[in-house]
Amino acid sequence: MPEQSYYLGVDIGTTSTKAVLFNKAGEIKDSHTVFYPLHTPNQLTAEQDPEEIFRAVLTAVRETLRKSDISKESLKLVSFSSAMHSLIAVDAEGDLLTNSITWADTRSSKHAKHIKENLNGHDIYLRTGTPIHAMSPLSKLLWLQDEKPEICQATAKFISIKSYIFHKFFGEYVEDHSIASATGLFNLEQLDWDQGALDVSCVTKEKLPRLVPTTEQFTGVAPEFAAFMGIREDVPFIIGASDGVLANLGVDAIDPGVIAVTIGTSGAIRTVSPVPKTDPKERTFCYVLTENHWVIGGPVNNGGIILRWLRDEFASSEVETAKRLGIDTYDVLTKIAATVKPGADGLLFHPYLTGERAPLWDANARGSFFGLSIHHQKQHMIRAVLEGIVFNLYTVLLAVEELTGEPARIQASGGFARSELWRQLLADVFDKPVIIPESFESSCLGAVVLGMYATGEIEDFSIVSDMIGSTHTHHPETEASNIYRELLPIYIRLSRLLKEEYESISDFQRKHMK
């Protein structure tokens, strides 16, 4: 009997790296996750140690394969997913000059504003598909030039975290079209670095990695790393794409009219178009999956990271309860939220604790409770936090619909999809049926499917519909949806009315909280 084939997807995320081993039917054989910190010494900085992340990749692969006990010959490929918008400076010897400056870092917010207002930012967005925002490497490059010119002088290459890892493996700095399309430096039509954006950033092509398609294969991984991970040196490594676009593929949301909603540490709403599309109002992104698949949508900063804040800062008793019961703290929090009726008795929460990307694109945005009265209790605040995260995603959906039309169906994924309350909340707020695949590992599965396509094992992406397993479907409950239809206009108006106040309070915080 021939040995079964296996495929490894590796997702380099904001708070962890996960490796997931699939068979050809999309069934998970084994997985392993390695967590690492996001260094936030102040409210503007969000960095990570690239070496720590590289070690996490090595360990995640090694432990997944060790637990699975498969033979080296049965592993057919390793394919990569990665978080977007990271920026790392290295010198001519490949030594680090900076940490990985992540998407959540907002130190370049004033530089983003300067690009928008004075450096043809609108035209750059229309060509690159990356909204002008502190998240983007374009803005970060201007900040580095102003604040750390000595680093810019010493830099040989500006790269992403995935480029750093592939250089460690193969000795060359490369960037896939998908990660490149999230830098603000990549021309969507030309599939090359955009000269206008480079002129603004004062960076030449020579200081950026070589561009490759998302299907590019590499073999000959450094022997010491192959030995550590327990793989053959000649196993194909597929460079893959970004976590967001691969999540669409991994939940079978690649046909026009299908919307993917993901809530992990952050969150996003995305749909696929056969051609690139940008928004005249600059609310949405356009990123590459392949040259025939363009992912249009909007990311939000504030997804699961808000729940972690809620747990760490306000839920010490719930943490102890969870320990005693042997369950997850988040399960305790959602059970408490479920005791409160939809709308949290008129309490709204804007979850802008780390600024916000879509649809506001305002790094100065700040979180707030609105409608708080004497009868509101802790459980109302928990419910309002959960609802506020989904309300924010709904505002992104409204922007995407203007470009691509009303969705035919919604596919949801991410850690939140494990919770029945979250799933129902999404259906009620969106007022549409929500389908949740059985497999929650959407980015890793998407990476594997892309890898199979790259190596010629499959001719197109249609196989993914059979790989995602059975699904759960949640239909909106009329009473809850009607309540949310009343609250959502208030929620949206507030975020617009507070724009000037967001800037004022963030200026105050920068001045007094250094």
Automatic annotation (TrEMBL):
InterPro entries: ATPase_NBD, Carb_kinase_FGGY, Carb_kinase_FGGY_CS, FGGY_C, FGGY_Carb_Kinase, FGGY_N, Gluconate_kinase. GO terms for biological process: D-gluconate metabolic process. Residues 6-250 form the Carbohydrate kinase FGGY N-terminal domain. Keywords: Kinase, Transferase. Residues 260-454 form the Carbohydrate kinase FGGY C-terminal domain. Pfam families: FGGY_C, FGGY_N. The keyword Magnesium does not apply. The keyword GTP-binding does not apply. It comes from the Bacteria. One of its GO terms (molecular function) is gluconokinase activity. CDD domains: ASKHA_NBD_FGGY_GntK. Belongs to the FGGY kinase family. This is Gluconokinase. It comes from Planococcus plakortidis.
